[in-house]
TrEMBL record:
This is MerR family transcriptional regulator. Residues 11-79 form the HTH merR-type domain. Keywords: DNA-binding. SMART domains: HTH_MERR (SM00422).
Length: 143
């Protein structure tokens, strides 16, 4: 992306590249989240304010990282408003070294011949996985 001031307006292509979603997803989010209102100029070109970009980043995190549904994010926006949503800290899930190390590869003929040895996983990681599981179960129950 070009070197622009932090206060500069961004085009839809710049925002899509920054956030990591296609442009059509941003257009779709405009229809689902009334708080996302880019400035439109001649030819219906969209220009996003810095606040719009931050809100879109928050929506992206909630949908793709935190596992919220569109209805869930709509409810959060309705309850907290855009500024309240942006004020929430981004959760950080620690990853232990035991999780990032892979077991040694077995020769193809022995792939299923030897039992899998359990690896040590720290309690914080297990807790975060259980929280994700519970959040997914709740989302499936709502669907």
């Amino acid at each position: 992306m070009a070197d622009k001031s932090a206060d500069a307006f961004r085009t839809i292509s710049e925002v899509a590249e920054t956030i990591g979603v296609p442009q059509h997803v941003l257009r779709f989010w405009e229809t689902r989240f009334p708080a996302v209102k880019p400035l439109k100029r001649g030819g219906n070109r969209r220009y996003y304010r810095p606040e719009d970009v931050e809100l879109l980043r928050a929506i992206n995190r909630l949908l793709y990282t935190d596992g919220y549904t569109i209805k869930g994010v709509q409810k959060l926006l309705k309850d907290k408003g855009p500024k309240g949503l942006l004020a929430e800290p981004t959760p950080v899930i620690p990853v232990s070294a035991a999780v990032t190390t892979l077991p040694e590869a077995a020769p193809p003929g022995e792939l299923f011949a030897r039992p899998v040895q359990p690896t040590a996983v720290d309690a914080a990681f297990v807790t975060s996985l259980r929280a994700i599981r519970d959040r997914l179960a709740g989302a499936l129950a709502q669907a």
